[in-house]
Amino acid sequence: MNYLIGIDVGTSSMKTLLIDESGVVVGSVTEFYPFETPKPLWSEQDPAHWWKATCVSIKRVLEETRVESKDVAGVGLTGQMHGLVLLDKDNQVLRPCILWNDQRTAKQCADITAKVGAERVLELTGNPVLPGFTAPKIAWVRENEPEIFAKAERFLLPKDYVRFLLSGEHFTDVSDASGTSLLNVGQRDWSDEMCDALEIDRSFLPEVTESTVASTRISAEAAAATGLLEGTPIAAGGGDQAAQAVGSGIVREGIVSATLGTSGVVFAHSDEYRVEPNGRLHAFCHAVPGKWHLMGVMLSAAGSFDWYKNTFGGEEDRLAEENGSNVFDLLTEQAAAAPAGSEGLLFLPYLSGERTPHPDPNARGTFFGMTLRHGKGHMTRSVLEGITYGMNDSLQLMRNLGLEISEVRASGGGAKSDLWLQMQADIYGSKVVTTNVTEGAAFGAAVLAGVASGVYNDLDSAASRIVKNTGEIEPGNGRDIYADFYPEYQALYPALKDRFASIAKVIDRHV
Q1: Does residue 413 carry a pLDDT above 90?
Q2: Res. 511: pLDDT tops 80
Q3: DSSP 8-state code for residue 322
Q4: Which H/E stretch holds residue 319?
Q5: Which of the ends of the chain has fewer CB neighbours closer than 10 A, N or C?
Q6: Is 317 annotated in the active site?
Q7: What percentage of the chain exceeds 70 in pLDDT?
């Protein structure tokens, strides 16, 4: 039996999974570590935490499952994207990694965009230059820590620093590199034009490969530290969203995932390089060789429902505690009693600002259209509908680019409720399916390792073997109702945008 290891280098923890060749999870270990916020809007982490967690978690998962290292066919890597690890000529880390959620680089983003041109940036990289991306972080270090930058010989992304310690070699993959603002995403290689704009020499960049390539192998030193066998192949791997999509079988055009966690992510495989003209969708290289993906992100998806429960669900909390039931189930029972469309009550789920399709930190959550007819069930249902309308915004942008959607694979909180699953099918206007895969990016990294090591022929055949549908929901009677209400939802943000900005200024003056 062949076994595969997937390692997910997260922001607050590392997850290491061991699966067998049929996709069954044999073992799982999570190691936690801290990150620092030395100043407001800053977010940094010592890469030494990742290596310690790597060694401990691999040893533990092998010991706990009693799998011998000779039976591990390959290792796959994934993790948090966009982070900046700077190395000197001796491959020593020069400063803490600047993480994906660090927001210090607004000036550098504006400078790079002005120098290259906003349209050209989109054409080359598929995305605007955003504060979370890697290139503006490089520019920030050059401008603000020149003594450190003068020593820098190379940069790596977080998972690729772990690869370096496992193998002694510098590599990255095209999906993770897509989040740097330095990759020509259409050509799947570093962009000379973007590098020239930042005055970055190609020697500063790791070699970039497709995600299924066995780019490196476990070194003797790493074998001693982890318990793995020297020479075990290491797949190039992928960014966390691309790896999670691989694990969920989003490896063919027409299949889209809709993940309703605290935030909401809509992820679509694309056979072509498609760029949303206004940069409202992320366009990255996929972990599937020669393919791309489109991604929309809303900041408060199931997080909006959680807020609603905490704010208005006191009675349901009490009943749930008394009866040993789930408070969210009680709330969705109330929502099910209200009609589709909530009799005109609309909810904007912008409780944390928004990202897709409105990149606006000033956007606010809003109940609109309330009358004396509306009760708590209407309010609960309108929250679920508003979240789903927000996810549908990303799907509509994808369809506008010519992407035909045959099915949406639901996961997260939105896959646990029959009401919410039917609502998604009705609002998306597409079949919604659930699958047997409940693991995240580490599972996808292990699947990538399976292709890199020859356990699987390719990602499509791996997905067919591993991912099975557990339920299918077709659009129902609510489809026509939601088709009428959705344009009203879409009209609310443009109507309120100026008011959102105005109230933000008032808050700044008085809070």
Answers
A1: no
A2: no
A3: H
A4: helix 314-323
A5: C
A6: no
A7: 100
